[in-house]
Design brief:
The protein is mostly helical. It has 2 domains: 56 residues, no CATH class; 245 residues, MetI-like (MetI-like fold). It has 18 helices and 2 strands. Strand 1 and strand 2 form a beta hairpin. The radius of gyration is 27 Å and the shape is globular. It starts with a helix and ends with a helix. The C terminus is likely disordered.
Length: 322
């Protein structure tokens, strides 16, 4: 009996060796590789190859389909003296500041009001009504606002005329002084947005015991927001800042549809500058250099957001959630 137990213990010890367990964990069915391979092939052709091609051709006087001449860093030297390229980042900075301030205030106010409701059905109804517009195509939203801004038949100017405030009527997207502000207002009141979705998904899952405890401690709504709700949103705010950096650097969709970068380049942004250089100026190599620079700026800015978060008390989990 003792011998049998000794053999069983030896077998179990052998089977439980860390090295063997690691080898077993490393065994992945060949079918997994077969399934993943087409996905990576398509991803490489559609995403990675164009990106690396753009970086490569940024060092050329590129003529797609024809002979291209290697020019080294000439495209990047040209970029240093392109005032329109660098001034477009000024507009981008204004857009970024607006996207992480005023465009977050109304969504978070809406979330705070919704979680305050005692009726679960009412919370569900209002939450659904504010989330459904996220399904609307962005092109539809931009074109609707372009109609609202129309200087002759637009709803905004007609409304101002109707209440006797004709002096306030403008060609909102046709005047340099108002064009950028008009672009920022598109989507107002910005509640049906990704920040609202993230804020509500976080705050509605806070245990009610915490709210009750704060009430017993005499904390008002404002104090509870800063002491309880806002700290709960730390990771989510980091995520939103990360996404805001990327989306702002890629901004250009609404500007292209509504203003095309005008008037007088008042709404010019890097993406529109790249499109203009490539398709209007036919300077494909220079456009590739600008795209490469925008990619580098995007990577550096995103890394800075994560670094600041970690230095302010974020941990590895915060970074992995991104």
């Amino acid at each position: 009996m003792a011998a049998v137990n000794t053999v069983e213990l030896a077998d179990s010890a052998t089977n439980g060796r860390p090295g063997r367990n690691r080898r077993e964990r490393r065994r992945v069915p060949w079918l997994v590789y077969v399934v993943l391979l087409p996905m990576f092939v398509v991803l490489g052709v559609i995403s990675y190859f164009p990106a690396f091609s753009g970086i490569w051709h940024s060092f050329y006087e590129w003529h797609p389909g024809f002979t291209s001449t290697f020019t080294g860093l000439d495209n990047y030297r040209q970029m240093l003296h392109d005032d329109l390229w660098w001034s477009s980042f000024k507009n981008l900075g204004i857009i970024f500041i607006a996207s992480i301030t005023v465009m977050w205030i109304l969504p978070i106010i809406a979330v705070e009001l919704i979680i305050t409701l005692r009726s679960e059905r009412a919370r569900f109804v209002f939450r659904t009504l504010l989330i459904v517009p996220l399904a609307f195509p962005g092109v539809v939203t931009a074109l609707v606002w372009a109609f609202l801004y129309d200087p002759n038949d637009g709803v905004i100017n007609r409304f101002l005329d109707g209440i006797g405030l004709q002096s306030l009527a403008h060609n909102w997207v046709g005047e340099p002084d108002t064009a950028l502000a008009a672009l920022l207002v598109i989507g107002f009141p910005w509640v049906a947005s990704l920040p609202f979705l993230i804020f509500v998904s976080t705050l509605q899952n806070i245990p009610t015991e915490l709210f009750e405890a704060s009430e017993l401690d005499g904390a008002g709504r404002l104090r509870r927001f800063f002491a309880l709700d806002l700290p709960m949103l730390g990771r989510q705010i980091t995520l939103l800042c990360f996404l805001a950096v990327i989306s702002t650097l890629q901004y250009g969709f609404a500007a292209y549809l509504v203003t095309s970068g005008g008037p007088d380049n008042a709404t010019q942004v890097p993406i529109l500058r790249i499109i203009g250089v490539a398709f209007e100026g036919q300077e494909w190599g220079y456009a590739a250099a600008e795209s490469t620079m925008l990619f580098v700026i995007c990577v550096v800015a995103s890394a800075l957001v994560l670094l600041v978060r970690r230095r302010n008390g974020g941990d590895d989990t915060d970074v992995r959630t991104l």
